[in-house]
Write a structure and sequence with these properties.
Layout lengths: L1 E4 L2 E4 L4 E3 L5 E3 L2 H10 L4 H14 L4 E2 H15 L10 H7 L2 H14 L4 E3 L2 E4 L4 E4 L1 E5 L2 E8 L10 H20 L8 E6 L5 H10 L2 E3 L9 H8 L12 H9 L5 H6 L2 H8 L3 H15 L3
Parallel strand pairs: 3-5, 10-11, 11-12
Antiparallel strand pairs: 1-2, 3-4, 6-9, 7-8, 9-10
Helix pairs in contact: 1-2, 2-3, 6-7, 11-12
Length: about 290
């Protein structure tokens, strides 16, 4: 790359990557390493993969193409199941907001041992509200709010957190007035993307619990999914949209559900062909069997 500065010409080896939203940022090998580590790859393999990706990259390469190279190399040199995988970030975005992602989030918490009640309408002082669920943790009740973005680079902003906190206050005022039997100890907000800086700052002050793609820093959505292998059905690539939708309509949104159920039962509840489901199940099993 050539950079012109006044009357001088400066040559630099900087290589830039084009993100999904069109922004350009300098190639950063450490991001590829972190991506591999999140998928359970040993650090030495992650470093090797990152070096090979850098060798094959060029100025202006897209993040999607980089991910394709990562999966290609991982399937060849680490575990064959990677050839069946979609990017986790894209897989979450590919779920429908309703009912898929809401059901996914409820199962996500149930798999961690929490009691999760389904979506329901609860009366506040001013309005009735449809909640995405109610979670009980250590004897405390939390209203569950699920936000889904089809574009994985769309952030959940301050206005969402302001509205949720106002809803929480109104619901607890309804409890105080006797129009509801549920007193909430707080609210949990889950989204498949990132939160804006102001959304995080406000929520930390107001006491809202946020769970997003990279927030909190340690136990965030992406790391917990990888750790517990709570992969969505859209993580398996190579099938028509109708397959994922029919499974979602049947309440099946986790690969764990697909693997644990007999093919005949999957076919009965979804209306899908048994042969197709056998292929889907085999790919899901291969992914979940990865150490």
């Amino acid at each position: 790359m050539i950079v012109y500065l006044s009357n001088f010409v400066i040559y630099t080896n900087a290589m830039y990557v084009v993100k999904a939203d069109g922004r350009r940022e300098e190639f950063d090998r450490s991001k590829i390493v972190r991506t591999c580590l999140r998928m359970g790859v040993p650090r030495e393999v992650a470093e090797e993969i990152a070096a090979k990706v850098e060798q094959r990259s060029y100025d202006g390469i897209s993040t999607r193409e980089i991910l394709q190279i990562v999966f290609e190399l991982l399937s060849k040199h680490h575990h064959p199941s990677f050839r069946h995988r979609e990017s986790l970030r894209d897989a979450l975005s590919a779920l429908r907001p309703k009912p898929d992602f809401e059901q996914y989030v409820r199962l996500f918490f149930r798999e961690q041992g929490y009691t999760v009640l389904p979506n329901q309408i609860v009366r506040g002082r001013c309005l009735d509200y449809e909640l995405d669920g109610i979670i009980e943790i250590n004897g405390k009740k939390y209203m569950l709010e699920v936000k889904h973005h089809v574009n994985s680079h769309t952030r959940t902003g301050l206005e969402v957190c302001l509205a949720i906190y106002a809803k929480l206050l109104d619901l607890n005022k309804g409890y105080e007035l006797g129009v509801s039997t549920i007193k909430f100890d707080g609210a949990i907000v889950v989204c498949n993307t990132k939160f804006t800086f102001h959304a995080i700052k406000y929520s930390e002050c107001a006491g809202l619990i946020l769970l997003g793609w990279n927030y909190p820093k340690e136990k965030n959505l992406s790391t917990l999914i990888e750790k517990m292998k709570l992969y969505p059905i859209t993580y398996v690539k190579g099938f028509d949209k109708e397959v994922y939708e029919k499974l979602g309509d049947s309440g099946i949104v986790l690969l764990k559900q697909v693997v644990s159920a007999p093919v005949a039962e999957l076919a009965r509840v979804s209306g899908l062909d048994e042969e197709l489901l056998s292929k889907f199940k085999e790919k899901a099993r291969e992914i979940l069997s990865k150490p």
